[in-house]
TrEMBL record:
Coiled coil start-end: none
Lineage of source species: Bacteria, Pseudomonadati, Pseudomonadota, Gammaproteobacteria, Pseudomonadales
Protein name according to UniProt: Adenylate cyclase
Source organism (scientific name): Marinobacter zhanjiangensis
Residue intervals of the Adenylate cyclase class-I N-terminal domain: 19-214
Source domain of life: Bacteria
Gene expressing this chain: cyaA
Length: 959
């Protein structure tokens, strides 16, 4: 570069020759950077960089990106170079630059910015290009230009290059109207002046106008607007020769917080580059007296000290951070900066064949010599592709600590200065969600330890070892992960890679962090002391099968898309791993025995109704690409798991997550997996039919000998456990706020098709009575207007009239009384009463309508009525009336039922022996009142009637 300083004194007039020499210095430096950027690409990739100016200057069908005949084109003051023409002819041999009529240029500038041409450029770096157009371009033509840019990005990808083209006008940028949304490479509203600072010190001019900022001395930056108008108005420079992106006197405080969040966002996948930039932002914010790097760059050009090495963007960045951190006496942070810069370059200095003759290697070697790094330090950094997970995890903690430290300082400064962040609310929420998903710790979440730090963490040999209480080796129980474990005894002294409470947790952690590969050798060691425990010794075959299942459905989680982050988080995939390390029939397995039975339901297997689902470990992948683990190990593991799955579906029924099931090896593993998958599908279909819901219903599930009823209260599912069939009937008789049908699980009542038919026949606002004769007993069910259901059985002598008529009359009486209470001057139709016989043939049930008894058909025998009386302690007692004889509880107390039974027995002929039935029942209206309940429901009356009849018939000796 020139050694003589250049001075521009606007107070005494401007020398055009001085302006030209300033531009020439920038152009010379620009060409050197462009040559370096080109040399960093492969010969095949260089065509992309060589062609870019030409494809925007000409809208030629033979060139890449061609989209439409009226696509904006033409770069101001651009003349295709021989290099560009040769590159075009490599693609289309017949290509020639036409000499036809020239149209006015519609594009003002093309600039490559960022790391290309600098020490920080590596094979993994992308190319960020600004495509600037005239400010008066019509929106529809701008859309065509943006489509061309998208096509060019896809074309560059074919050469292994990530090309990001940003299309806008300098006028819009200068006025702050460039408010793009945050994407992978676009900082959106997060920063403006920091981006302009980076542009001015890193941009490589590819074509079009030069930045007008070049011509304003650093000490005149505060008069930027005045001086640029002076140059243009007095025609010291031509308007089509320079492009104005605006002044850069300093960074507003409001921008630091938004920029800090953006760099944290980028740091999730690119920690080294983001670490350097975030520290520069902190340096700018805390050391505002020393100005910006772009000012240092321009000052060096004006002074004549700007060699291409000394003003290398990353060298300048490092020198600024070095001076600042040394003044802060922060050697630990400075060491991390040096490591970040070294790793960002991707140049292994210990491998001379890869760095020989490269200008980047020469600069980096000079820096490393200044840092006095020894050979061991370099070897460790150069062996990045061989780093183990422990090294990566430790380095990640340092990186995350540094990133969050810088962000907190910037956030505190923004609050203390009482300024709002320059980032928009939408972008702030978006970035915050990504940071939360990447760094937030929470119960059950699987930690990702390799956010772009090492290329691979795959291991050749992994051993999963279990320790149970009272084993020979000291230490806490659980599962441990080892590398290259030769002997089980080595676990006593060898440090594990990781500890976990379960084998599934260890395997999922390995999968998410890339330790597992198709060629990883797996070993399994189990130290089991309690021989009576139901813990099965897993096999390596089981382990490989589980790894394959998790790998197939989980993969290695990638960062979430912008679209996913813009929406609330939702589960996408649930993996249910059943009975891992547990044999629910361990006592039989140890003796080589297996139960044989025609009961094949995995939740009620064999005559003992054994539940074969002992434990479930649920792995969840959500839309923000977080992976979490939840364990269910109690006796009700399956029901608890189902409850939580339903709760997750209820948040977004239209997008139910995928559920996959895997069961550990054993004779029943496939049946168990199929049963659970089937159960989840059935419940999801019932509660969320049509992609809406949750619908109001009671789902009956039988596990071993117990019943579980699952239902929703609003959006929250819950379940009730019931120990017996009688408890189930009592529960189903409870009043309902709205019509709530009973839906049995497909296996719940395989041996009772009659009950299944009754459940399926329920209808809203219809009272139904069902009966099924059999042997010496008859079964009854009543379903009422809201779906409440109650069933029982009672002795019968073979007379249908004697068995059916009392219940028919009782239900008709209830319906008539309800009508009388509801009339209020207008006739209300009596609730429909339906009677059905349940007929079971060949294991299938059907219903046959039974005509109701004529009104003229009277009941034989005594009239027995009961009137409920609410006691002061809340209990309910009954006064009974047999014909006209009263038997009050107050008078008879505990002898009441015996007294009624004696009275009935005295009124019968000798030898008559049949059950007694209540013909009428009155209950207090404040009986166990619900807020929503205006009157008592039919099944409440039926339930109390049956309890009284049982007590009376017990006294008669008929129960």
């Amino acid at each position: 570069m020139h050694s003589r300083p250049l001075l521009v004194d606007f107070s005494e007039g401007v020398d055009r020759k001085v302006l030209k020499r300033i531009t020439d210095r920038f152009r010379t430096l620009n060409q050197s950077r462009l040559d370096r950027a080109r040399s960093a690409l492969t010969w095949r990739q260089q065509i992309v960089l060589d062609l870019l100016p030409l494809v925007f200057h000409l809208n030629h069908p033979a060139l890449p990106g061609y989209h439409a005949v009226d696509c904006p084109h033409g770069l101001d003051r651009y003349q295709p170079s021989d290099l560009a023409i040769h590159a075009a002819q490599r693609l289309a041999r017949s290509f020639r630059v036409g000499s036809g009529r020239r149209t006015p240029a519609e594009l003002t500038g093309l600039y490559l910015m960022g790391s290309p041409g600098s020490l920080g450029h590596s094979v993994a770096s992308d190319l960020d290009v600004w495509v600037c157009h005239h400010g008066d371009l019509a929106p529809e033509r701008l859309a065509i230009l943006q489509e061309k840019a998208s096509r060019l990005s896809r074309w560059a990808a074919e050469y292994g290059l990530e090309l990001n083209l940003f299309v806008f006008s300098a006028e819009d940028f200068r006025q702050g109207r460039q408010q793009a949304e945050v994407t992978g490479e676009n900082c959106g509203s997060a920063q403006h002046y920091l981006l302009l600072d980076e542009f001015y010190r890193t941009a490589i001019h590819l074509g079009g106008r030069y930045p007008l900022w070049w011509l304003i001395p650093v000490d005149e930056e505060s008069r930027y607007g005045e001086l640029t108008r002076f140059l243009l108005d007095n025609r010291f420079v031509r308007s089509d020769e320079y492009l104005d992106f605006g002044a850069l006197p300093s960074i507003p405080v409001a921008e630091f917080l938004g920029a800090g969040i953006w760099q944290l966002y980028k740091g999730i996948e690119s920690p080294w580059k983001s670490l350097l930039k975030l520290l520069l932002i902190e340096c700018y914010a805390r050391d505002r007296r020393n100005g910006l790097l772009s000012g240092d760059f321009k000052k060096a050009v004006y002074s004549g000290d700007a060699s291409v090495d000394s003003v290398d963007p990353y060298v300048m960045l490092y020198r600024r951070l070095e001076r600042w951190l040394q003044s802060q006496e922060a050697p630990g942070r400075l060491d991390l900066v040096r490591r970040a810069l070294y790793l960002k370059t991707g140049l292994p200095l210990t491998r001379a064949t890869e760095t020989a003759g490269r200008w980047q290697g020469r600069i980096l070697q000079q820096l490393v010599s200044e840092w006095a790094w020894d050979r061991q330090t370099l070897s460790e950094l150069d062996a990045r592709h061989q780093w183990r997970v422990e090294t990566v995890a430790d380095l990640r903690r340092r990186v995350v600590s540094e990133l969050t430290h810088s962000y907190r300082l910037l956030s505190r400064m923004a609050r203390s200065d009482n300024v709002r962040s320059s980032i928009s609310t939408a972008d702030l929420n978006l970035l915050g969600r990504k940071l939360y998903a990447a760094f937030q710790r929470k119960a059950g979440k699987i930690e990702i330890v390799n956010p772009g730090i090492a290329p691979s963490l795959a291991e050749e040999n992994l051993s999963f070892c279990q320790r149970t209480p009272a084993t020979s080796h000291p230490g806490p129980e659980g599962w441990l992960l080892f590398r290259n474990l030769d002997r089980p005894a080595d676990t006593a002294w060898q440090s594990p890679i990781r500890r976990a409470g379960s084998l599934v947790e260890l395997v999922v952690w390995c999968q998410c962090n890339g330790l597992l590969s198709p060629v990883t050798r797996l070993n399994l060691r189990q130290e089991i002391a309690d021989t009576e425990a139901a813990t099965a010794v897993l096999t390596v075959k089981d382990l490989r099968a589980m790894v394959g299942f998790i790998s197939q459905h989980l993969g290695i989680p990638r960062p979430p898309s912008r679209e996913a982050l813009m929406s609330p988080v939702r589960p996408e995939t649930h993996l249910l791993l059943v009975n891992v390390g547990i044999d629910p029939q361990a006592s039989l397995t140890e003796r080589g025995l297996h139960k044989l039975s025609d009961q094949h339901d995995s939740l009620g297997f064999s005559g003992g109704r054994d539940n074969l689902v002992a434990t479930i470990e649920q792995v969840t992948l959500n839309s923000w690409r977080e992976v979490s683990l939840q364990r269910y190990v109690t006796g009700d593991a399956l029901v608890q798991c189902l409850k939580n799955l339903l709760a997750l579906v209820a948040r977004d029924p239209a997008s139910a997550p995928v559920v996959e099931v895997w069961c550990a090896g054993g004779s029943h593993s496939r049946a168990i997996s199929h049963r659970i998958r089937e159960l989840v599908e059935d419940m999801t279909r019932q509660f969320f039919a049509g992609g809406t819901g949750p619908h109001s219903l009671r789902y009956l599930l039988k596990v071993d000998r117990r019943w579980f009823v699952l239902r929703f209260e609003g959006l929250e599912p819950g379940f009730v456990g019931l120990a017996s069939d009688d408890d189930l009937m009592d529960y189903l008789a409870h009043p309902q706020e709205e019509y709530t049908p009973v839906v049995p699980d497909r296996y719940a009542m395989q041996q009772d098709p009659a009950f299944r038919a009754v459940c399926g026949a329920c209808q809203p606002e219809v009272i139904q009575m069902f009966w099924q004769p059999g042997g010496r007993r008859m079964r009854f069910w009543v379903t009422d207007e809201t779906g409440s259901l109650y069933g029982w059985s009672q002795p019968w002598s073979g007379s249908r009239r004697q068995a059916l008529l009392p219940l028919m009359r009782f239900l008709e009486s209830l319906a008539e009384r309800r009508q009388l209470r509801q009339m209020a001057g207008a006739e209300t139709p009596v609730a429909e009463l339906v009677c059905n016989e349940v007929i079971v043939e060949d294991g299938e049930a059907r219903l046959e309508r039974t005509p109701l008894a004529p009104e003229s058909l009277s009941l034989d025998g005594m009239e027995l009525q009961a009137v409920g009386v609410q006691q002061g302690d809340g209990s309910l007692r009954f006064d009974l009336f047999c014909d006209e004889q009263e038997f009050s509880f107050q008078e008879y107390g505990d002898r009441q039922m015996a007294a009624v039974a004696h009275y009935v027995r005295q009124g019968r002929r000798r030898g008559e022996d049949y059950p007694i039935y209540l013909t009428d029942l009155h209950l207090p209206h404040d009986l166990d009142p619900q807020m929503w309940q205006q009157e008592l429901q039919t099944c409440q009356y039926v339930w109390y009637r049956q309890q009284l009849q049982l007590a009376l018939n017990r006294e008669l000796g008929l129960v």
